[in-house]
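Fold these two proteins, one after the other.
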Amino acid sequence: MASTEPKIDLSDDILRRFEKVSLQSCTGALSYITNQAIAAKNGDTSSSWNNCYMKNVKPLTSGRKIAARARTLSFLPPRPDMAAALRRGEDSPEFEAIETCGPRDVLVVDMNRMADIGILGNMKTRRLWSRGATGLITDASVRDLDKIRDDYGLAVFGAGRSAITGLAGSPFHEVNVPISCDGVLVVPGDLIVADDDGVVVIPQQLAEQVIDWIEEHDQVEGFIAKLVDEEQVPAGRYYPPSEELKQRFRDEQAQKAK
């Protein structure tokens, strides 16, 4: 059985910082880190972090924003021998996965993009709620969505909603292992940021670098807005910000701090 512990656990402080930023800022930071890495390696694109946005996973509980640690669950296509081996009542993988979730955790389920299949309805998500988890993300659909949203207050992101309860002989497989959800790699312990614009995965080892970049970038954009207003010039004079402009901002901040 795979370990149910992630390699590292991101701090609540990091998660709170991510709750204040937009999804676009997250993808922008990953793009910046990617461009820097590619440039440092003379164009080697194996350093790209750009495949972190789930293009087909939609917000099913609009208005909810989350920044949470990923706990993962994988799924297998139908075959009776595997179903017999993996359906073990309360010890089945889906129940084991739910028991690893707690506050500021989100369960991410790889369903091989079977978008018409509804998974984890009322009874299973009730346990997520009682354990204080943040919500559920999957590349399949979700059953009993109204109850999950209204009674449990969980944030749900998926391919849609469905009354179909699954395919006979299709078992969940492994708990807290690397998975592909909507074609995006999710490693247990990765940071998931999700809102009405979708879902992005921040690799756990990049989380602090990403939030540091975002927070400075947002401040620099405020600095640019002030310059544009004061000088009554086109934004293109200063935007996108050059490294020289960023350094000017840092210098001014350092002067103010004295």
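Now the second one:
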Amino acid sequence: MARDRRVKPTDRPGVIVGRVVPSNRALPRSTRIRPLWAFGLAAVAACATPGGRTAPVLLDPASAEWTRPAPPVAHLRFETTKGVFVLELHRDWGPIGADRLYNLARLGYYTNTRFHRVRAGYIAQFGLHGDSAVNAAWKGRYLRDDPPRSTNTRGTFAFSYEGPGREHTRNTQIYINLADNPRNDVEPFTVLGTVVQGMEVVDALYAGYGEESGGGVRQGRQGPLERGGNAFMDRAYPRLDRIMRVTVTVAPGR
């Protein structure tokens, strides 16, 4: 059996410090993990600097790092308090949104954030940052719309937006469909991919707060979460599940 190796502290983004991981050499070449530095991130800080401070790149939405194109197909692996799930992101389904989501994931925006809106049998939503300064920096950093690709079947995901008549208002928040939701198909959402692993984890996210813990972007009740960040959410809604880490890889065979 291939010997595991312990990763030592390093300045390479995307390397998990202090965890035991299988050696890449033990895997077939086509399925070896490609760490984030392989995508050209050697000069970028990890999602948080030593001591837990927010990385400067997260406070600078104008940085060129946020404009890197996503690969044709990427896997976004979410480690959460309920387990692991993987989103498969397809760039050709909506390149503007796919590039934004890819960069948010690879640069650590979603690390240590909360699933602030979960409605059982409907959707699970995330994308508010735990640092109020980051939320302020990204306020109004809207994307142009991709052509609608609005077939909201179970396991698909898309950016939320501010509602009918509010075009070009996608930003950082993603929803995952927990069921087939044809009622959402009448709106111009652009579905960007599907959950390919761990849908049972998404189903298990805590849904007891429903719309109470911030709701959606169009309901106008997210201000306290944006301004208070994790400190507020953990105090007011302590049972919200968390995203602990997101790892980005190119899908095998792509």
